[in-house]
Automatic annotation (TrEMBL), chain A:
This is Branched-chain amino acid ABC transporter permease. It is a multi-pass membrane protein. It comes from the Bacteria. Its main location: membrane. The keyword Transport applies. It comes from Roseococcus pinisoli. Belongs to the binding-protein-dependent transport system permease family. LivHM subfamily. Coiled coil: none annotated. The chain crosses the membrane at residues 20-43, 50-66, 72-90, 102-121, 159-180, 209-228, 234-253, 285-306.
From TrEMBL, chain C:
It is a multi-pass membrane protein. Its main location: membrane. It is found in: Cell membrane. This is Branched-chain amino acid ABC transporter permease.
């Protein structure tokens, strides 16, 4: 007579591996959104579009690199280059031309500006990349498979999924934490996140910080998309699905909290893949249920700090 | 005096209302119409969102065909003009647009919808507005099995035949399979097609173990968890009726992780995803095309016409003509045949809506590969060809060892519900229903 | 301005009737617009308190599916509407008890999450909801009369217009009442409200329940007008649309939502008709233009035009 764990322990182990890779992607998108929200207090609906454009650009650039004779290993750095290009160009453009004009306005207007931008970018993607699936899986094929033992059997995982995705996510987390705690610019960003009024009163150049943070967030969104592109084929409508999920992560994590985003992404990733094994019907609901459960217990989010009430 | 004035104003308004709406809504339903300057066709299709993978090629096909038809003098001497409507914003927008097409644009015929949900919403409107509506791509069996729609006609096959044909092929190709897993998109077609498959499979080969029923979220971009589970379960057969970008993603991820070495895949809607898959689609798996319009059809009815259409499309849009293009071709072909028939029946006169719809009853029209007859319930009888993926001269997979299943053998008879009919099938049908071509 | 608003409302209603007579197909679009306007009035109440619900499509779709499920059992439009409205209000009360504790982003996101749960259930519970295929709604009776399609469409249009006027009036009165004033206080200085002995949560909760009632009513009108409901009505982009309409119309007055809704639907229809490939981008540009140049929305434009003349 086997216990539940003996029977399902191995499966649980597999679910863990899948969950990690998924969590890595969720983290990459959500952390940028969270950073931007923490500093600018603008919930950027177009963040999902930046993710999608990053994915498309990475695929196109990868195909171009391959056709112009770059070696196969180049397919990995190409992902980073594409993300930097998309975020580095679109980020400042959006911040300077649009967001800058509405910082003084009500939050709902800021939200809607990005919603409008989302609608425009959705059609723009279609114009550029068409409607047929775009794909370039060179980066995934480059690294081949890694066989994970499973009882007497083995399960092939792609090394890309097993190592690259979680690796980049952990590197991003560590790098961001270092940047925010140890560099001057990073500390200023943290200062603006925790108390905007006090920070600006102390003479911090908010305009520069806003531009920097937004660009940074845009690069992270594009990087999330770029990282997802080797395993997925890209079709219109990618952005709309990504953004709702990231919203859930941001609210669950607490505003501007990168560790919170990491933990939430992990919870969402793991519970999703466990659901696929043991309760497939609940899979889509897991992120939202986690969010509602967390906010019931901690109304300011996992890592959020309760704001002092103004009198 | 005042009373009568206000009375008369009200009656004028009321009169304007009724006559206006009659003029618009029922134009030609009873009257004898003169030959119009243009034959207006309203087409609803996906122009945005993930299903635009099908919708945009179909739109391109429609534009190409309209040009060709007009260059050849139009239909019955009348040039055609197309208006397109995007299905993606949802039903509430679509039914409004359907009304606009009929009441404001004054279209003579509507080609409705890729999505089954859209078709289910549009057909009742076709009844009410008495406007001939060609269901040019949607596959749900519910349409004609749950009600009569005298103005709606489907110019292609439907879910039942598109699922049964691959099932019969599997039963013949790998009769000893004992376990199966399904991974379908979580929406109506994904669920419906599995219900149809299950009914037929349980009737013809009882005792097959269903080891997993996976319905990942519609529009998923990552199936790695599902693939891991399928790798661990090692089912003999994996069925997936997914399509578009999702199918491309699923097959690529599954192939990379060698799932397709462990299990035989059955992909009834594979064809449109094969060009983007290229060599990522391994050989030896069962593939279907929602019809018989494979580019390498070994004995099409009119080889020259098939080549002309397929090559013409490829040259103009630099893409292969995938199955929605063929379905759009079929809709135009049916329309031309129906007008020819209706005009002949009226000895040269232009048909009204009623007469046009009547012409569709029992209509037979040509496609490049075959001939389709529209049954008395409005369902088109399109043959199905299923085969094994293989590589020839093209850079993407095409079927080999093809079996052709005549539509009448794989469609539920008029008046019977598909699931009930599938439950009556018995083993041995796989040997009689189709022929090798 | 008060009298002007009433005059404008009557004038607007007359214009809509005229449009509906002249172009029968517009009658359908305008009915939907009026229904959405009613739902947006609910959004307006919450906006008064500075709270943005990014999940009110929940009530829209809940009302619509209530009609879809109940219509076969009681095919009477004038019963279905209040039933859908009340059930939706009840749901709003249950959810409101939870979400009224939260403010700002958390309020928005919780509403979004709950609406997405409901949306997923509509898709998942395939055997009851028919999933994405949706449920067909037959033509219900109206006041016990079995109407022809054309007459029924007129009946729905008329009902929507009357309800829009009535609820618009109600919202005006509500906003002018102490309860409405208290709502604005939540936006500016919530704590002061509580010092005055008014529980902020109860104030927000009552506005929330009202908005759920309006959303459910709007959903029932939409269901009976389109006569086919699908889960898409509950997707987050529809919630976004409702907020979009609120801002487009202008959050300053009860007429704003209707101005916004009619404009929104007409722009969408005409954009879709002339640029089927890029209607979304056009809507986006319109929204962007309104926010950047007339942040008080169309109603704000009307107001300033009026002031200039006066």
């Amino acid at each position: 007579m086997y216990g539940w764990f003996e029977e399902n322990g191995l499966l649980l182990g597999l679910a863990l591996l899948d969950g990690l890779a998924y969590a890595a992607l969720v983290f990459m998108v959500a952390v940028g959104l969270n950073l931007v929200f923490g500093v600018l207090r603008v919930l950027n609906v177009a963040h999902g579009s930046l993710y999608a454009i990053g994915a498309y650009a990475a695929a196109s650039l990868g195909l171009f690199a391959a056709s112009s004779g770059l070696p196969a290993w180049a397919s990995l750095p190409v992902l980073l280059v594409a993300a930097a290009l998309v975020g580095g160009i679109l980020g400042p453009l959006i911040e300077r031309l649009l967001l800058r004009r509405i910082y003084a306005q009500e939050p709902v207007l800021q939200l809607l500006v990005t919603f409008a931008l989302f609608m425009i970018l959705e059609d723009a993607q279609k114009l550029i990349w068409g409607t047929q699936p775009v794909q370039n899986d060179a980066a995934m094929r480059l690294l081949g498979n890694f066989d994970v033992p499973f009882g007497a059997d083995f399960i092939p995982f792609t090394a890309y999924q097993l190592f690259v995705l979680p690796g980049v996510a952990v590197a991003t987390l560590v790098g961001l934490a270092w940047f925010l705690r140890r560099t001057l610019t990073g500390r200023v960003i943290v200062a603006v996140t925790t108390d905007r009024e006090a920070a600006t009163a102390m003479g911090i150049d908010a305009s520069r910080i806003y531009l920097l943070t937004f660009t940074f967030g845009a690069i992270l969104a594009a990087l999330g998309g770029a990282l997802s592109s080797p395993t997925a084929s890209l079709v219109p409508g990618l952005g709309a699905q990504t953004i709702v999920l990231s919203f859930a992560v941001v609210a669950t994590a607490g505003l501007g909290q990168i560790e919170g985003a990491a933990l939430t992404a992990l919870m969402i990733g793991l519970s999703r893949s466990i659901a696929v094994y043991f309760l497939p019907e609940a899979e889509v609901l897991t992120p939202y249920l986690i969010m509602v459960a967390v906010l019931l217990v901690r109304p300011q989010g996992l890592f959020g700090v309760a704001e002092t009430r103004r009198v | 005096m005042t009373t009568s004035a206000s009375m008369s104003r009200r009656s004028v308004l009321a009169g304007a209302a009724t006559s206006g709406s009659l003029l618009m809504a029922g134009s030609g339903a009873e009257a004898q119409p003169a030959k119009p300057a243009e034959l207006k066709i309203g087409i609803t299709t996906f122009l945005s969102g993930p299903a635009s993978v099908f919708g945009v090629p179909a739109k391109q096909t429609a534009e190409m065909l309209a040009e060709q038809i007009n260059a050849a003098g139009g239909i019955g001497g009348v040039p055609v003009r197309l208006s397109f409507v995007d299905e993606n914003p949802g039903t509430e927008h679509l039914v409004g647009e359907f009304r606009r097409l009929v009441q404001s644009e004054g279209v003579h015929v509507v080609f409705a919808s890729i999505s089954s949900g859209s078709c289910l919403a549009c057909t009742p409107l076709s009844d009410e507005m008495r406007k001939t509506t060609i269901l040019w791509d949607c596959g749900t069996q519910r349409i004609f099995e749950e009600g009569r729609h005298p103005f709606a006609f489907r110019t292609q096959g439907y879910g039942t035949s598109e699922v049964l044909a691959p099932l019969l092929y599997l039963l013949k190709h790998k009769p000893d399979f004992r376990s199966i897993a399904v991974i379908n998109q979580d929406y109506a077609w994904g669920r419906d097609s599995w219900e149809l498959w299950r009914a037929g499979m349980d009737a013809m080969k009882p005792g097959v173990r269903v080891v997993a029923e996976l319905f990942p979220r519609f529009n998923s971009t990552d199936f790695s968890t599902e693939i891991t589970r399928l790798l661990a379960l090692r089912p003999d057969v994996i069925l997936s009726t997914s399509w578009g970008g999702e199918l491309v993603t699923l097959v690529r991820q599954a192939n990379e992780r060698r799932l397709l070495e462990r299990s035989l895949m059955v992909l009834p809607v594979a064809e449109a995803s094969l060009p983007p898959l290229g060599r990522s689609m391994p050989a030896g798996h069962i593939i279907g095309t929602r019809g018989d319009h494979w580019v390498n059809h070994p004995r099409p009815r009119d080889k020259a016409a098939l080549d002309r259409f397929v090559n013409g499309y490829q040259q103009r849009f630099n893409q292969p003509a995938i199955y929605p293009c063929h379905h759009m071709f079929q809709a135009f072909s049916a329309l031309q045949a129906a007008y020819t028939k209706a005009i002949a029946a009226k000895s040269g006169g232009w048909p009204n809506d009623q007469e046009l719809a009547a012409a569709f009853q029992g209509l037979t029209f040509d496609t490049p590969t075959s001939r389709i007859t529209i049954r008395e319930d409005g369902q088109g009888m399109e043959d199905q060809i299923v085969g094994l993926s293989s590589f020839g001269t093209l850079p993407y997979a095409v079927p080999e060892k093809m079996m052709l299943y005549p539509a009448t053998n794989v469609s539920a008879p008029v008046g019977q519900k598909s699931v009930d009919w599938l439950k009556t099938l018995r083993a041995g049908l796989e040997n009689t229903a189709g022929e090798a071509i | 301005m008060r009298r002007t608003e009433t005059l404008l409302a009557i004038g607007g209603a007359a214009l809509l009737v005229l449009l509906a007579i002249l172009a029968p197909w517009l009658r359908f679009v305008l009915t939907i617009a009026l229904a959405k306007g009613v739902a947006v009035l609910g959004i307006l109440l919450l906006l008064r308190a500075g709270q943005v619900s990014f999940g009110h499509a929940l009530y829209l779709s809940f009302g619509a599916y209530t009609v879809a499920f109940l219509a076969p059992a009681m095919p009477e439009a004038l019963i279905l509407m209040p039933v859908a409205m009340l059930l939706s209000g009840l749901l709003g009360l249950v959810i409101g008890l939870f979400v009224s504790r939260y403010r700002d982003i958390f309020f928005s996101m919780l509403n979004l999450a709950i609406s997405m749960v409901f949306y997923s259930l509509l898709e998942k519970l395939y055997h009851y909801t028919k999933g994405t295929d949706g449920i067909r709604v037959g033509v219900p009776r109206f006041l016990g009369m079995a109407l022809e399609r054309d007459q029924f469409e007129w009946a729905m249009f008329g009902t929507a217009l009357v309800l829009a006027l009535a609820i618009g009036c109600f919202v005006r009165l509500y906003l002018a009442s102490p309860m409405g004033q208290a709502l604005s206080a939540i936006k500016t200085r919530e704590t002061r409200l509580e010092f005055m002995g008014l529980p902020a949560r109860a104030v927000l909760l009552s506005a929330y329940v009202l908005s759920a009632l309006m959303g459910g009513l709007a959903g029932s009108i939409i269901a009976m007008t389109t006569r086919h409901v699908t889960p898409l009505l509950g997707y987050w982009t529809v919630s976004g649309e409702l907020v979009f309409i609120a801002i487009l119309g202008g959050a300053g007055a009860a007429l704003g939502p209707f101005l916004g809704a009619v404009t929104f639907e007409l722009v969408r229809v005409y954009a879709a008709a002339s640029f089927a490939d890029a209607w979304q981008a056009i809507l986006g540009l319109v929204l962007l233009g309104v926010i950047l140049f007339f942040s008080r929305g169309l109603w704000g434009m009307v107001e300033s035009l009026w002031r200039r003349r006066a």
